[in-house]
Write a structure and sequence with these properties.
This protein is mainly alpha-helical. The protein has helices spanning 24-43, 48-70, 73-107, 113-117, 133-164, 167-182, 185-199, 206-230, 234-242, 247-275, 279-284, 303-313, 316-347. Helix 2 runs antiparallel to helix 3 and helix 9 (234-242) packs antiparallel against helix 10 (247-275).
Length: 353
């Protein structure tokens, strides 16, 4: 069988594969955007999303065709995969950007200091006015109580599973933690409603909602803490035990300080997870128009409940208040996530150069 001819350059050096210029992806992106806008205007497409989809398809096809012609099919496949990844990323990012844009645009219409420092007491829902101060107090108290309940229980459970857990009991605990991780939030609310309010005959309160939030928070704390404890090197435990330090003291003085950054981050993320829960709050706190600083007695409001309540009123003034409360809730969750990331970076081990 004849071998394919080998082309040798006149200078004797290696062959250089022709490549697209560096500005080619940006140029193709601009060209595709122009084609998308032109097609949208020509065919009368009202949705900007349709324009974007046309531009994305044109960009992927044009990139593959041009790369095949210049660099060959192998490099074209690589660029095709890269283009599809970027297009998928932008498509996935579009709903998030749209949601944030809409919330900021609608929420800033009534969001001011008056809105943050007043309640809805005596405010007619059809008219502008009122605020979310009572809902902010309810959210802070309910989330705070839930954290005080769930964080210690989750931490101790994770310590047991990692440091002591053996046999059937540990297997059963792990199984139920996995089950609790996947239960719907409305189920937690129904459980507290049936046990705390119907059977024990306690009234609606912020504490009842906090117990349901704690049920949702505990498996998250257990899982995150368990993973952080497993990352602690066993050599640290063995060195402490070799010096005659009891195991409980080793856990308290060696294991937990080493993993405290990751544990704190997990707790903060769990707090951010439950801050926006609505279903159990609807069942248990019952809602209130005025300020109630006592979470253990009487109905109370919260930010998720306030958003639902105002939107259900069905008028323009209530819609504005609902959007503003949603913006405050998003900001609250974002701050918690940023604090968690800051703690994780602050507590991360420093490596020398």
């Amino acid at each position: 069988m004849d071998k394919p001819p080998v082309t040798v350059p006149p200078s004797g050096g290696a062959l250089r594969q022709p490549r697209l210029p560096r500005w080619a992806p940006a140029g193709l992106a601009l060209l595709s955007a122009g084609v998308g806008v032109g097609a949208g205007l020509a065919f009368g497409l009202a949705s900007r999303i349709q324009w974007g989809l046309i531009a994305a398809i044109v960009y992927v096809v044009a990139t593959y065709a041009l790369t095949t012609a210049v660099e060959g099919r192998r490099q074209a496949r690589d660029r095709l995969a890269t283009s599809l990844i970027w297009v998928s990323f932008l498509v996935a990012l579009l709903p998030l950007v749209s949601l944030i844009w809409e919330t900021v645009a609608r929420g800033t219409e009534v969001l001011d200091m008056y809105f943050l420092t007043h309640s809805m007491r005596g405010v007619i829902t059809l008219q502008p006015g009122g605020g979310i101060y009572h809902a902010i107090i309810g959210t802070v108290e309910q989330v705070g109580i839930a954290t005080l309940i769930a964080a210690p229980i989750g931490l101790l459970t994770a310590i047991y599973l990692v440091e002591y857990g053996r046999g059937r009991l540990a297997t059963a605990v792990t199984f139920f933690v996995d089950v609790m991780t996947g239960i719907p939030s409305i189920v937690a609310g129904l459980f507290v409603l049936s046990f705390w309010i119907i059977i024990l005959d306690f009234g609606y309160s912020g504490f009842a909602g906090a117990m349901a939030l704690a049920i949702l928070m505990m498996p998250i704390v257990v899982r995150s803490t368990e993973e952080m404890l497993k990352l602690v090197p066993n050599e640290l435990r063995e060195a402490s035990l070799a010096l005659g330090v009891p195991k409980w003291r080793t856990i308290l003085k060696v294991v937990l300080p080493t993993a405290i950054g990751g544990i704190t981050t997990g707790v903060m993320l769990a707090v951010a997870r439950i801050a926006g829960e609505t279903a159990p709050i609807l069942l248990l706190v019952f809602g209130a128009q005025s300020i109630n600083n006592n979470p253990f007695e009487g109905a109370q409001s919260s930010l998720p409940y306030y958003v639902y309540e105002q939107w259900a009123n069905g008028n323009e003034a209530s819609y504005d208040r609902a959007w503003a409360a949603a913006l405050v809730l998003i900001a609250f969750v974002m701050i918690l996530n940023l604090v968690a990331r800051g703690i994780a970076r602050w507590k991360a081990p420093k490596t020398g150069r």
